[in-house]
Amino acid sequence: MARKSEEERRRDLIAATIREIGASGTLNVTTSQIAKSAGVSPGLAFHYFTDKDTLFLAAMRSILTEYRADVTQALAGTRTPDERLHAIAQASFGMTSFRREAISAWVNFYALALRSEEARRLLSLYHRRLHSNLVHALRPKIRERAPDVARRIGGLIDGLYLRYALDTRTLRPPEEAVGAVDGSEGAQHVLRAIAAECTEVHENDEISMADADPAPMAPLAGPQE
Amino acid sequence: MARKSEEERRRDLIAATIREIGASGTLNVTTSQIAKSAGVSPGLAFHYFTDKDTLFLAAMRSILTEYRADVTQALAGTRTPDERLHAIAQASFGMTSFRREAISAWVNFYALALRSEEARRLLSLYHRRLHSNLVHALRPKIRERAPDVARRIGGLIDGLYLRYALDTRTLRPPEEAVGAVDGSEGAQHVLRAIAAECTEVHENDEISMADADPAPMAPLAGPQE
DNA sequence: CGTCATTAATTGACTCGTCAATCAATAACT
DNA sequence: AGTTATTGATTGACGAGTCAATTAATGACG
């Protein structure tokens, strides 16, 4: 055997890929660039990954794993539903996700999903996980309305992420103030939206309770959409 | 002079560009492809557009103009704030925006914004217009809270658009069911989110009125975020 | 009305650089 | 000595952008 373990090389190459995508803002990154950034020769990339798309998908999986770890860690110390919601919001707009590299990779993977079935699968995996986390945190507060609300909150997170990520201020300075604009504003918005949704659910429940049906145990399982 | 007017040629080339981006799902489209699709020779593209990026930006402007016209038209017949909100939601998820071509172009322009200042400018122009439309429609309902809420609703629209646009079902069938998944579900979500935000604002106003301050004319201009 | 000169759009072959992927040679390890 | 990672030169294809030649229009003049 030679220099490094397969595991390590793969990691290096994936990290280099993300780094280069981050630096260029595109998937138009040459194998040479990536290899150079990983400190290996161009040929080696193809020894570990069959072709460039495979490498990109591996990088995407890596970004997703990283994000997942972030969320998991943030959720670890939580006890109340509100703490959980706070954790999810924070993680989605946290330092890890707002590095230039991560932003660049993330946005480009959206584009990749247009032409790669596998990328689409990974993206929907992320969607389902986020949805599941949100439902879990929302269920104690709004019961059967959780899935419907979670869908909107998930969409809101993605949308706001993109807005802040592509904000001129976030992106403009090539190197100077990398993380100048943090995402905490985005997280605030998400939490406010959640508050609004929950208030409305309770409002409606009270109305329907006071207004229509004297039986206090009406709906528990129903279709969400 | 020869065959066609400059205006017409530009239009043809831009349309072809969008068509090809839609077909391939990438900005990796050759000038030859575009020219062929526009029914002209490869060289001509460079006669009307200095280089490929210029052509892409022109295409992006075209998509934005189209969307704008769509919204304007939808807003034209409206009288009440609710009608206006409905119109905005509908237009954002309408047929025009959900064509495969438009989706592909839109997503790729997000990626383009990572490396092109001009693309970023256009994107933020879209953001400002959407925000302005939303504020205008929300103001009668929630006064000074409108800008804050509009920010979230704008983000929600973008996020949900992406989710439905990249949904496997929307994209999978290469040609068979082009507009199979329409965006009306997305529009529904947006309207529900707006309802929730408005309910909460009123709820809070009532609480603060009943609870804290007997003076009924407290806040009229305040910081939004 | 034709013919020819002028002007401008349009062509497509070509250049020059780039890059994904290959592979025979080599270096590092046991 | 044998095995396996690693190299880097190479190939073959492709594509952006150029440009000299071609074609179609306009109109000037006989």
TrEMBL record, chains A, B:
InterPro entries, per database record: BetI_C (IPR039538), Homeodomain-like_sf (IPR009057), HTH-type_TetR-like_transc_reg (IPR050109), HTH_TetR (IPR001647), Tet_transcr_reg_TetR-rel_C_sf (IPR036271), Tscrpt_rep_BetI (IPR017757)
Which UniProt keyword terms apply here?
A: DNA-binding, Repressor, Transcription, Transcription regulation
Superkingdom, taxonomy of origin:
Bacteria
Q: Where is the HTH tetR-type domain?
A: 7-67
Q: Which pathway does the protein contribute to?
A: Amine and polyamine biosynthesis; betaine biosynthesis via choline pathway [regulation]
The protein's matches in Gene3D superfamilies, at most eight in alphabetical order, are given as: Tetracycline Repressor, domain 2
Q: Which Pfam families match?
A: TetR_C_6, TetR_N
Q: Looking at the keywords, is DNA-binding present?
A: yes
- State the DNA-binding region(s): 30-49
Q: Does the keyword Translocase apply?
A: no
So what does this one do? Repressor involved in choline regulation of the bet genes.
Task: Please identify the protein, giving its name as recorded.
Answer: HTH-type transcriptional regulator BetI
